[in-house]
Write a structure and sequence with these properties.
Chain lengths: ~170, ~425
């Protein structure tokens, strides 16, 4: 499967996330041409702001490695990440620390993006990891806009309003 | 004379305490101000000074951060019309002396006030933000400067009173002990973390890095998940005892899936009650669990009147209403993530941990040892001042710096022995 086809799968995951009331980000971890982890954002469910799609996928890979008796270090180094939105500063750091093979993302993340948008995190690390953005970015962006138009049921009252305002000013 | 007295005691303390809390501020506050070249006109007669200032301000406004005239020299215009365009990679547009003279003449400025030849000199290109910068800048050219008291109190450390500094030191000592007992990190990030509610000083969670068990188990990441657990969430299975309890909870949750609005409200109140009970009975949550054997300091509020005032007059004006709003929301909805909490770290965090704490909306971060390798709260970057991020925390370094640094060395040495 090529990058574009993988991104379609990731976009489907993002849509599922939107329906579940979480931020619509879809993420796939591909190893040996096979999806070994897919995840979405579970911040509201876990009350933990770090539970982004990528972090959830990392946990799945660790579990996968345990079950298959594989060394996780080796698996991560041969693993490709496909995610609909530019990973945030935290997630890109996690992926770079694990030295994944490549990171492909859809739209830019103007609020938290750690590849180019807000802070260029790769410059702090060994630059071996391939990073490519803007793959099907329009679709990814549309899902985000749909989400912020709606209501995040778990955020305190004011947050919801502010998110809407931010989005309006961003446009 | 209470204020005088407190100044005196804090002075005494700085001599007895081995460390100083250093605020990590954006480069706006710490940089040596850049200089740029400007034309100055030399007044033939000093008595014309005020008339010349008035006239030049009308025809060529600018230099708001500088005195327009010093020592018979009048600031006219920068040599390069736009420093910004240069930053954008555009070509310099240099203003010629004759060109400037023509402009002045056209706008009705009386050039006979000046000596024939203009001089070129360097002056600070932007306004100073701190007393220190203003002092340095005025050695070059007199500046217009009004110190921001909050910023000055941040810089000289008087924003924390003595009790608060003692409490900070006690919590950092605990973090050091936690690291001694359990921390297994790597060269990127190591140590231990504590999350504290500043309002009552309750230690909510304490953790030590365990990258031997999980590559993401840095101290801050663990601490954030422990707090999530307090809120009836959490993603990692951090100890078996709680795990069984959580399974039971999930069982009861499943039974009430089709609840109507009324029972949902009840469940919600239930949840709040449960969280409150957890705060009172289960804190501090510890990972690894052996950390519960540490001696915890006596609980005391950290947010003194001084501290609170400081946070309120944060340069970011939006901060204040947000805080109050948050207070109301806590009563209504319960605590949200780590909003408002203070975090204590043995070592300056890596980008993953620093951003995790930003996502979690903590209010303050205190760390001891710098992390030259990958620290982004002062060493490699100053994450919380990066434009674009609506930064949510203040950062202090140097808390028990020597002790923290020694502990980092100790735990790193321990790791290489294994």
């Amino acid at each position: 499967m090529d990058i574009s086809a993988w991104m379609d799968v990731a976009l489907q995951k993002a849509e599922e996330s939107l329906r579940a009331g979480e931020v619509p980000v879809g993420c796939l971890f591909i190893y040996n041409n096979e999806i070994i982890a897919t995840g979405n954002n579970t911040v509201n469910e876990t009350c933990n702001a770090t539970r982004h799609a990528e972090i959830n996928c990392i946990d799945q890979v660790l579990k996968f490695c345990k079950e298959k008796c594989l060394q996780y270090e080796t698996v991560f180094r041969n693993l490709d990440v496909v995610v609909t939105v530019e990973p945030c500063i935290m997630c890109i750091s996690a992926l770079l620390q694990l030295q994944v093979h490549s990171i492909i993302y859809g739209c830019a993340n103007d609020r938290f993006g750690g590849c180019v948008s807000v802070l260029e995190v790769p410059k702090f690390y060994d630059p071996k990891v391939l990073i490519q953005g803007n793959v099907k970015k329009e679709q990814a962006m549309k899902l985000l806009k749909d989400f912020y138009k709606g209501v995040n049921p778990n955020a305190p009252d004011s947050k919801v309003k502010r998110k809407k305002e931010t989005l309006l000013t961003e446009k | 004379m209470a204020s005088l007295k407190s100044v005196k005691t804090s002075k005494m303390e700085t001599t007895t305490r081995s460390w100083t809390a250093k605020p990590i501020l954006g480069s706006d506050f710490t940089e040596v101000l850049p200089l740029h070249e400007v034309y100055v006109g030399i007044l033939k007669q000093r008595k014309d000074t005020s008339a010349a200032i008035q006239s030049i301000s009308a025809v060529l406004p600018g230099f708001a951060h500088l005195k327009r005239c010093s020592n018979g020299k009048l600031l006219l215009a920068p040599l390069r019309s736009n420093e910004l365009s240069r930053a954008n990679g555009e070509e310099d547009i240099t203003l010629g002396e004759d060109e400037l003279k023509n402009q002045l003449k056209e706008r009705g400025f009386d050039l006979s006030l000046f000596e024939d030849k203009f001089q070129v000199t360097k002056v600070p290109a932007k306004a100073p933000r701190t007393k220190l910068q203003a002092g340095e800048a005025s050695k070059i050219w007199p500046v217009n400067f009004h110190p921001d008291q909050t910023i000055e109190r941040l810089i000289d450390g008087s924003i924390f009173d003595d009790d608060c500094l003692h409490a900070i030191e006690r919590i950092m000592s605990l973090v050091i002990e936690a690291a001694r007992l359990e921390a297994v990190g790597d060269v990127r990030c190591t140590g231990a973390a504590a999350v504290v509610d500043p309002e009552d000083g309750r230690i909510l969670a304490i953790s030590a890095a365990r990258v031997d068990q999980h590559p993401m188990w840095h101290a801050a990441m663990l601490a954030v998940d422990l707090v999530a657990r307090l809120h009836d969430g959490g993603a990692w299975r951090l100890n078996d005892e709680d795990l069984t309890k959580r399974r039971m909870d999930e069982g009861t949750l499943d039974e009430r899936v089709d609840s109507d609005v009324e029972t949902e409200n009840l469940n919600f109140k239930d949840r709040l009650r449960k969280i409150k009970r957890k705060y009172e009975e289960e804190t501090p949550l510890c990972y690894p669990t052996s950390l519960s054997s540490l001696t915890f300091p006596v609980q005391m509020p950290l947010e003194t009147q001084v501290g609170r005032k400081g946070r309120r007059s944060d340069g970011d004006r939006v901060e204040d209403p947000q805080q109050e709003e948050y207070g109301r929301n806590v009563e209504k909805c319960g605590p949200y993530l780590c909003t408002g909490y203070w975090v204590f770290l043995l070592m300056e965090p890596c980008p993953m941990c620093a951003m995790a704490l930003l996502h979690s909306r903590v209010a303050m971060i205190f760390y001891g040892a710098v992390n030259q390798n990958l620290g982004v709260l002062g060493s490699r970057a100053v994450l919380h001042t990066v434009p674009g991020l609506n930064h949510r925390y203040r950062v202090w370094s140097g808390i028990l710096e020597r002790e923290c640094r020694q502990m980092v060395e100790e735990i790193n040495a321990r790791k290489s022995l294994k």
